[in-house]
């Protein structure tokens, strides 16, 4: 709470959280999420002080199946950060992680370098992570509880109406173009 107050006093309005995976094996391996961590309460206290959150979640660990990925999406909905960033696990060229997957023959052949961006599937996996990735965004951003939190009257003020229309246009174009 003391840090949140400092963020607010410093006019910091957005904090990025690497939530990663809710799968226990992955959490333990990444040493990121502590059991006593209470994201929904934290994010709500932050919003009350005018500080918003981006929760970043990863899909596509080799030990995950679709039910694990659904659990991660469900956790992001329960956590309720102001925004989410979903990522497809991406081993970057030049890293030990990449070399390990290459040695196992798990990298997709012919993937262009610009697809190593956390939104394209660069490794072989039993789940179509790209399709899952898109549906996760739809579930988070088009849910009634999130839409109810938006202060619509301020969105349609002189300046903000343009931002809302730009946001809606961006989402529609992403859906239409895939």
Terminal residue distance: 40 Å
Helix content: 40-55%
Structural class: mainly alpha
Largest sheet: 3 strands, parallel
Description:
The structure is a single chain. The chain has helices at 2-9, 24-30, 39-48, 66-79, 96-103, 129-141, 144-149, 152-155, 160-177; strands spanning 14-20, 52-59, 83-88. It is mainly alpha-helical and 178 residues long. Strand 2 (52-59), helix 4 and strand 3 (83-88) form a beta-alpha-beta unit. Helix 4 (66-79) packs parallel to helix 6 (129-141). The longest helix is centred in the last third of the chain and has 18 residues, at 160-177. The model has no long low-confidence stretch (mean pLDDT 82).
Tell me the layout of helices and strands.
Blueprint lengths: L1 H8 L4 E7 L3 H7 L8 H10 L3 E8 L6 H14 L3 E6 L7 H8 L25 H13 L2 H6 L2 H4 L4 H18 L1
Parallel strand pairs: 1-2, 2-3
Helix pairs in contact: 4-6
Quick overview of this protein structure:
This protein is mostly helical and about 180 residues long. The protein is about 50% helix and about 10% strand. Strands 1-2-3 form a 3-stranded parallel β-sheet.
């Amino acid at each position: 709470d003391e840090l949140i107050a400092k963020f607010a006093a410093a006019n910091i309005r957005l904090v990025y959280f690497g939530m990663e995976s809710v799968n226990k094996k992955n959490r333990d391996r990444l040493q990121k999420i502590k059991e006593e961590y209470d994201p929904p309460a934290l994010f709500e206290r932050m919003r009350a002080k005018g500080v918003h959150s981006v929760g970043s979640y990863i899909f596509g660990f080799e030990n995950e199946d679709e039910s694990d990925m659904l659990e991660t999406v469900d956790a992001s909905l329960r956590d309720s950060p102001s925004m989410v960033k979903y990522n497809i696990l991406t081993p970057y060229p030049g890293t030990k992680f990449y070399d390990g997957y290459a040695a196992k023959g798990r990298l997709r052949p012919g993937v262009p370098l610009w697809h190593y961006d956390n939104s394209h599937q660069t490794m072989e996996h039993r789940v179509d992570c790209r399709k899952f990735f898109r549906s996760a965004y739809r579930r988070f951003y088009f849910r009634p509880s999130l839409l109810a939190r938006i202060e619509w009257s301020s969105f349609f003020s002189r300046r903000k109406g343009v931002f809302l229309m730009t946001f809606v246009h961006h989402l529609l174009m992403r859906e239409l173009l895939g």
